[in-house]
Amino acid sequence: MRLTVFDFLHQFFEKHNLLTFKIFTGSAGSKNFILSDTVAEPSIIFHKDLELIEKGMLYFFSSNSFNLFNRLEKEDSKKLEENIRYVFSNFCPAIIVLPELIEPPLLLITLCQTYHIPIIRISEQASVLKKLLTIFLEDKFAPSITVHGDLVEVYGVGLLITGESGIGKSEAALDLIKRGHRLISDDMVVIKKMSGNFLFGTGSEIAPHFMEVRGVGIINVVQLFGVAAVREKKRIDAKIILEDWDQSRKYDRLGLIDKYESILGIKVPVLIIPVRPGRNIPAIIETSALNLRLKRAGINSAQSFNNILIKWMKSEKKIKL
Predict the structure, then answer these.
(1) Do residues 140 and 190 make contact, with C-beta atoms less than 8 angstroms apart?
(2) Domains and CATH numbers, the chain
(3) Confidence class for position 53, pLDDT limits 50, 70, 90
(4) Mean pLDDT across 247-268
(5) How far is Cα 20 from Cα 11, in angstroms, rounded to an integer?
(6) Which of 30, 108, 133, 191 could be joined to 6 by an S-S link, Cβ 3.0–4.6 Å?
(7) How many other C-beta atoms can be found within 10 angstroms of the C-beta atom of residue 47?
(8) Phi/psi zone of residue 268: left (φ > 0), alpha (ψ -120 to 50 degrees), beta?
(9) Given a cut of 90, is residue 274 above it in pLDDT?
(10) Cβ–Cβ < 8 Å for 263, 200
(11) How far is CA 148 from CA 84, 103, 187, 266, in A?
(12) CA 313, CA 301: separation in Å to the nearest integer?
């Protein structure tokens, strides 16, 4: 992933449109590439081991950071200044400063002018701003894949519905929307692995929340069902595979054995639902979502039923003996 400073500013402030920014200097560096989701404190620049510095990190300057540069100007440490120049010329795409920092130190301005590094002041509190920057960059640089399917939220559970083309994924998602559940994406789902080992799914950035229904065409879910029927993104809690009913195959009728699939290295519960005329697939998906919520709460219906059967069989055996 390569994100230019210009694209970062455009996308970040489009998302947080109440914030304002000012570029002090270094606007010629708007094509510098941000290559990392790390928001670094400038103290790392003063670190002696330059191998620890990651290329393409944004640097976040507070008043303490400015004091480091002011002290460097007074001490006139040539060796340390050489290290800083090396970092600025090779590793630093842009610097973010806080609104209370009225004027950056002269040495910092000189270095940024020399190496075309933008100094950007953003109007927000330090703790909030750093969190917003980290969340934004983590989303941009997260490992991702694109899969064919529908992502819906059913009773608060994120379900990725997959299956062969024409099996009825969009129709099932449409029925779920009519039942009061929410659509995240139809046909194409972008899955990202976020920090904390969570999978989040989103739709197309070009035309989100449109759906293709065979025989009807393209529909706009927001206009038809309202904004409450959609979400921008959702954590993926399980994957549902729709497939044609195969008479020769033995399908799980108890649910004692949990099935999983690895997506971007994370284990995701998988449910295979056979499709044939007469089966109410949306109702089965709703029931699956509720059953997943029960399992999260520590209640396994299949295991409870199995325990009851074992207990009954033991009691019957004792009576016969």
Answers:
(1) no
(2) 3-141 (3.40.1390.20), 144-305 (3.40.50.300)
(3) confident
(4) 88
(5) 13
(6) 30
(7) 12
(8) beta
(9) yes
(10) no
(11) 47, 51, 5, 18
(12) 18
Q: What is the 3 state secondary structure string of 214-242?
A: CCCEEEEHHHHHCHHHECCEEECCEEEEE
Catalytically annotated residues? 148, 169, 187, 253
Length, in residues, of the chain: 321
For residue 309, what are the CA distances in angstroms to 2, 253, 312, 313?
A: 58, 15, 5, 6
pTM, rounded to two decimals: 0.81
Give yes or no for residue 229 having a pLDDT over 90.
yes
The residue type at 158:
G
Which pair of tokens denotes residue 191?
Answer: 């899955």
Question: What is the phi/psi pair of residue 95, to 5°?
Answer: -125, 130
d(CA 105, CA 85): 15
Q: Please, what's the b/e burial string for 270-298 (b: 16 or more CB within 10 A of its CB; e: otherwise)?
A: bbebbbeeeeebbebbbebbebbeebeee
